[in-house]
Amino acid sequence: QDLVKQIHTVVDRLSPESKIAFVCFSNVVSVYELGVKGILGAEVFRASEALTSEQLSSIHQHVSRYVSPIKNCIHSVKQLLEYLAQTAPVLKESRKNRKASKSKATQRGFGVATTIALELMREDMPIEGSGRSEGSSGGQIFSFLGGAPNFGPGSFSDPTNIQQQVSQQQKQPQQLEFRDEQARSFYKDLGQQAMVHNVNFQLFCVGGSSFRVKILQHLVLSNGGGIFLYESFDEQGISAN
């Protein structure tokens, strides 16, 4: 609920002409159709594996379904924020109920969500040989993480819990190191793609989890942006940044 309030504050500050999209993720990724009038819907993708070229092409071709100027979708935005606020206590309670089962953890398919968010920014065709997009004004992707990415592409190990991961997943430390290296390459590639399209990332990492900044930093090294660490979602610095 605190995060919803922060987002609401930021949306109210934006120009009515500003284009916006919402992508939510867990073990699936929901892309909300802000560009469609009427009942708010979403397209859902599995977060367990990378999207196919056909799926990415479909997202690009139908980008107007997901991205819209605020003046045209403010009702849908408010409806979505109200929904997120209403479901937050339920999700919080679910996390409490899952404490009894250590094998079940909150799944965060951040890699697929970030891939989709970047695809939504590609509204223009690239100029051949220039490395940039014709007419692209760029943009920013604001990402909010309540814990480290731990599901699907771009997931990595938690150094404070490696022994538990080894016992549960029967993986050796060398395998976890390889997984971390894959995550570095994944985010480095996304960061370089973002640079081509004049897009930067602002990552807000909230809570006591180990976010492995040395891995996530590859999203911002190539194209600017920032990684911000906070204790809770109600801190004033979140909306200020």
Name the descriptors.
241 residues; three-stranded antiparallel sheet; 45% helix
Strands of the largest sheet, in order across it? Answer: 2-3-4
Structural class category? alpha/beta
Radius of gyration: 18 Å
In DSSP terms, counting alpha (H) and pi (I) runs of 4 or more, how many helices?
10
Quote the beta fraction: 15-25%
Number of strands: 8
The overall pLDDT, averaged over residues, is: 81
Overall form: globular
Distance between the termini: 18 Å
Largest sheet: 3 strands, antiparallel
Low-confidence stretches: 90-103, 125-130
Determine the fraction of residues in helical runs and give it as a percent range.
40-55%
Describe the structure.
The strands form three sheets. The protein has a three-stranded antiparallel sheet, covered by helices on one side. Strands 6-7-8 form a three-stranded parallel sheet. A hairpin with a 2-residue loop joins strand 2 and strand 3. The chain is α/β, with parallel strands linked by helices. It is built from ten helices and eight strands. The longest helix has 28 residues. It is globular and about 50 Å long.
